Amino acid sequence: MKITTGNLGLASYAFQTSFEYLGYEMILPTLTNSLSQKLGEENLRAELCHPLKLLLGNFLTVKDEKPDIVIFYNGCDLCNLTPINNIYLEVFEKYSWYPEAYYMNITKKRYFLRDYYNNLRKITGASSTKIIKAIWLGFSKLLLFQYLDDVFCVIRPVIKDYNVGESIYSKLFQEITEAKSFSEYQKIKKDINEIFQSYPPDYNCLHFGLTGDPFSLREPYSHQFTDRKLGYMGIIVDKFGNNLIKKENISNVEIKYFIRNNYGVFTSNAIARINNYVNKAYDGIIFISPFGCTPNDALRSQLNLIQEKTGIPILSLIFDSHTSSTGLQSRLEAFVDMVHRKRNILSK
């Protein structure tokens, strides 16, 4: 029996580790790339959002293997992520691929872990003891990926050289991908800590917080690796919850009281991120969303109000398959320059 899933951040590697521990083969797509994008665009209507096309492209890169089971993601109330899964199954039929579908609710950690357990149990029939160990092995890998990402979000401004930094990152990333035991995880974490000590963060750098569409934030190809671009511009980047960033709350603003509407669970998460960045006095916020995304369009319409009320600069970036890399670079550089000038004025 073969199992597959799409790239939602790095959760797919956690699933693979768990299934392999239980003796099942899991076939994963490569990291999202131009081929994924091309396959998705060829098989979905143009008006559907960029992340949904990328996710379909992930699945179609493994279509020739004809996996027996596909694990889909769902749970957002206003997003097309849940209903699109039925369209994906129709697309698979065009390629004579008829997998059985299972689903993972990604709105909250407790729902995610619940479905993680239930799907492993239904698919493998393993005992609860083995399933719990399989989940812990997979989830620990996911946490190690997160730690690697957190470290590089604060040390890229110190590394400065893109090729040097991403070469180190890629090597550690590959080691985590191939690791299969807790002892290997511990060794890799030690290596990451040594890199962290070699490039101690400069916390005087500007701090930017990313928020917006949760799929895009987890899938860096969808926003053209904005976090990495900012890092090598000298910016410490937070995607919410990076414990390596040394910022404390200096205010207690609740932006929900002056936002007119609350559109869905994912928008609530985006609001929580903005609230965190405002209260910790981040220097700027980058709002990332795909073109035509209803929940994010609703919140993006409130960004000017949030900026006016809080005084924190906000840059809204909208991505689709036609987003220019050069144009993105120019907008980021202009925003960084503006925030630097604002800091210099305030310091005087």
Report on the biggest sheet.
4 strands, parallel
- The percent of residues in helical segments reads 40-55%
Strand order of the main beta sheet, please?
A: 2-1-3-4
Percent strand equals 5-15%
| Uncertain stretches | none
- Write down how many β-strands occur, each being a DSSP E stretch of 2 or more residues: 8
- Please tell me how large the radius of gyration is: 21 Å
The pLDDT mean sits at 90
SSE order, one letter for each helix or strand:
EHEHHEHEHHHHEHHEHEHHEH
* Oligomer description: single chain
Task: Tell me, briefly, the overall form.
Answer: globular
- Number of distinct helices: 14
> What is the CA–CA distance across the termini?
66 Å
Coarse structural class: alpha/beta
Number of domains: 2
Supply the key terms.
4-stranded parallel β-sheet, Rossmann fold, alpha/beta, 348 residues, 14 helices, globular, 55% helix, 8 strands
What does this structure look like?
The longest helix has 32 residues, at 128-159. The relative contact order is 0.11. The chain has helices at 11-21, 34-43, 50-60, 84-94, 109-124, 128-159, 162-178, 182-198, 214-218, 226-231, 264-279, 294-300, 303-310, 325-347; strands spanning 2-5, 25-26, 69-74, 100-105, 206-212, 235-238, 284-290, 314-319. It is globular. The chain starts with a strand and ends with a helix. With 348 residues, it is an alpha/beta fold. It is built from 14 helices and 8 strands.
